[in-house]
Amino acid sequence: MDGPSHHVENANGAGRWVVTCDHASNRVPRSVAGGDLGLPAADMARHIAWDVGAAGVTRALAGMLDGPAVLSDFSRLVIDPNRGEDDPTLVMRLYDGTIIPANRHLDAAERERRLAAFHRPYHDALTGLLAARRDPVICSIHSFTPQLRGRPPRPWQIGILFADDRRLANPLIARLRAEPDLLVGENEPYTGHLPGDAMDRHAIVHGRLHVLIELRNDLISDEDGQREWAARIAPHLAAALEDVEDG
């Protein structure tokens, strides 16, 4: 048995916030190459396989905001739920200098099977949960490695990503930048617009308020760091939402 593609926690939370974690797990289901992508454990523990620390931040933040958390339960190397179905990076064959052996010769049938078994159920669950809530606000939690191989160090502790809808991103960035010890990236270390990605699919096309938060993973590698950063972010999110509503 492969187990579920996702988990929903704090499903009865009464707040407007829905906190998502697309890359919560580095688990490889048994039906995918026997549960082994051909990588050593050290690589499966790296950022290439999941967003280190993001799941813990997501759970803590959902509790603080009194909203549900939706977390994937398969590695991004199996198939990436934060990519559209036609994205060429949906199943990675090479990531940050590491070849993914089980993906090197992936055919169309296996790609479709992974979509049906993991990618679509995760998005179907999120679609249903959002549709059942009145005026939900989405916060997606991700993490990034301090430095990619052969690239400059990434100095930001936190990045706020967005596409064209800056309603929530702008006040959140302003509030975070008011903290003197924070270096806040604006669409750093990644762009906030990937057509067909999770935020495009669940927020932008529906006109829902949303923001994607990237945290540097060395800051949230343990439970204490995860709770500390959730506690730091939660009041800024609540205040930024008030700014939008008062504006």
Which helices and strands occur, and which strands form pairs?
Elements: E1 6-9, E2 17-21, H1 41-44, H2 54-65, E3 69-72, E4 94-95, E5 98-99, H3 108-131, E6 137-144, E7 158-161, H4 169-177, E8 184-186, H5 198-202, E9 210-216, H6 223-246
Parallel strand pairs: 2-3, 2-6, 6-9, 7-8
Antiparallel strand pairs: 1-3, 4-5, 7-9
Distance between the termini: 50 Å
Provide the spatial order of strands within the biggest beta sheet: 1-3-2-6-9-7-8
* Topology-level CATH name: Aminopeptidase
| Level-1 CATH class name | Alpha Beta
Number of domains: 1
Task: Name the average pLDDT.
Answer: 96
Helix content: 25-40%
Tell me the number of strands.
9
String of helices and strands: EEHHEEEHEEHEHEH
Oligomeric state of this protein: single chain
Q: Pairing-aware structural class of the strands and helices? A: alpha/beta
Overall spatial form: globular
CATH H-level name... which superfamily?
A: Zn-dependent exopeptidases
Number of helices: 6
Explain what the structure shows.
The protein has 247 residues and is α/β, with parallel strands linked by helices. It has a single domain (6-246), classed as Zn-dependent exopeptidases (Aminopeptidase, 3-Layer(aba) Sandwich), CATH 3.40.630.40. 32% of the residues lie in helices and 16% in strands. It has six helices and nine strands. A seven-stranded mixed sheet has the order 1-3-2-6-9-7-8, with helices on both faces. It has a two-stranded antiparallel sheet with strand order 4-5. α2 (54-65) crosses α6 (223-246) and α4 crosses α6 (223-246). The longest helix has 24 residues, at 108-131. The mean pLDDT is 96.
